[in-house]
Known about the structure:
The protein is an alpha/beta fold. It has helices spanning 18-25, 42-55, 79-89, 95-103, 142-152, 169-174, 194-204, 212-220, 225-229, 233-242, 258-280, 294-310, 338-354, 366-386, 403-424, 429-449, 459-488, 491-507, 509-521, 534-545, 554-563, 579-586; strands spanning 31-36, 63-68, 107-112, 122-123, 126-129, 155-156, 159-160, 163-168, 185-190, 567-570, 573-576, 589-594, 599-604, 621-626. Among the domains are: 18-192 and 619-626, Rossmann fold, CATH 3.40.50; 334-542, no CATH class. The protein contains 22 helices and 14 strands.
Amino acid sequence: xxxxxxxxxxxxxxxxxxxxxxxxxxxxxxxxxxxxxxxxxxxxxxxxxxxxxxxxxxxxxxxxxxxxxxxxxxxxxxxxxxxxxxxxxxxxxxxxxxxxxxxxxxxxxxxxxxxxxxxxxxxxxxxxxxxxxxxxxxxxxxxxxxxxxxxxxxxxxxxxxxxxxxxxxxxxxxxxxxxxxxxxxxxxxxxxxxxxxxxxxxxxxxxxxxxxxxxxxxxxxxxxxxxxxxxxxxxxxxxxxxxxxxxxxxxxxxxxxxxxxxxxxxxxxxxxxxxxxxxxxxxxxxxxxxxxxxxxxxxxxxxxxxxxxxxxxxxxxxxxxxxxxxxxxxxxxxxxxxxxxxxxxxxxxxxxxxxxxxxxxxxxxxxxxxxxxxxxxxxxxxxxxxxxxxxxxxxxxxxxxxxxxxxxxxxxxxxxxxxxxxxxxxxxxxxxxxxxxxxxxxxxxxxxxxxxxxxxxxxxxxxxxxxxxxxxxxxxxxxxxxxxxxxxxxxxxxxxxxxxxxxxxxxxxxxxxxxxxxxxxxxxxxxxxxxxxxxxxxxxxxxxxxxxxxxxxxxxxxxxxxxxxxxxxxxxxxxxxxxxxxxxxxxxxxxxxxxxxxxxxxxxxxxxxxxxxxxxxxxxxxxxxxxxxxxxxxxxxxxxxxxx
Length: 644
């Protein structure tokens, strides 16, 4: 392995990142581990490198793609399968293209958050703190060690395949050396120096005298506990955010341990962000003023954080995985209770079908029509209960222009015409032709134009596509049943059957049953095809069941939280901007085992409004060292960076 022994993120006087790119390109094999303290800028450095590699990419170079390791089910797939699934689900790449690109190593995996795969070291359910007050990592870390084992066997021919990995330094160092990533260079992010921290806070303070006591303490005691605590970009940006407009920054001097300081800052973050957002962004992009009370914001975000804490990333074989990270709209419904949501979903589905009862009097036999609609409603409710996890779909008209789409369209039309010809032997020829044309229309549109389940795109875009998909499938089934019933009986009966067919197609009953039968005959057709929009319906049912725990306009609130700097968008999901926010909200009343004190310490966190948000970051320091070498901190360079 060859790698530079030292370097910096920026050259002197340069606003680009050539040094780290050169460092990575000169490393053979091109494997890199980025470590640092919590909030030290690991993800930011990886993203800076990712963007620089894309900006300087030559033809034939691998395309860097960032993935969250917390979402990797290591018991079900290797790294290749994980990459392919991410390209298909999150980036909407065609399966065959994604598989070929990964197989030929044209995708450079940027794997973020190895330390987030396993829970922290605990004793009787309580996190264990080290002598500095930081939570201790679990040295066993079964999922992280499994990941490293899979990464070590990830090859490009006979050589280790390129990749970039981020992990907290304490978590990585706690792993046995033989389990770490082999033949890899390591970048260790150094702490912010007292001089850098003082300069940053002085620039952010707007020369307010409120900051003078804290700045004086940092300058006069550069090795003091306050300087050590305020040594990461994360804590410095929080401090600047909380006390930007009001409050006494000298309160920070009372919290000298990292955990105490984090608790103090995080307890004031949401009130500060809410207050600042109301001042600086009084109107949303839609022209509607959005104002939320800090208590409501904290309660709603706490509910979401607790949900993520209960969604473990492990599987049945690995039940003790770390908490989840992604808030995907159509996957939030278990928060309101699985049985409760399914029951309400069944009632809503059945009630929707029952709304068509008046059309029974358009048929020659109204009593039979009423009975039939009731049976359809019951079946719709049963299908809703039995649907364990609705998946959103979308219309994919461009698929009809592809060879596979044209073939499926022809097959659908042919199948319908054959079915109509068969019916002609037992019924009227006109009825058979009408039945064949209707079935051919349904088969052609459903099989040829409606795409597979999709998770790529923005959070609201996925539900919007699913809604359009449901309307299309409902119209198709309604038209088919109207044509068949109209030819068999009369136009009024056709209208009645078409109405019931439209609503049942909208709910997904008719198509859901047929799709289960067809999927066994034609494996190419995805199960659940043309099954209405049950994913959107269940999301709406979830909002109905959660009206006292979450805002009714949940998407609007989540978008507001992203603009306020509390959340961020990650493809189809929302994520907390920093894992420390999520962890703090999920465990605001927690017990810790303090090894230095030999006792159990219980902290109850409260919040009070103060400060204002101003998202910015101080200058971290990056030491680039080969794995196994101690970083040399004698010649640090201050680096400016914008951290998320």
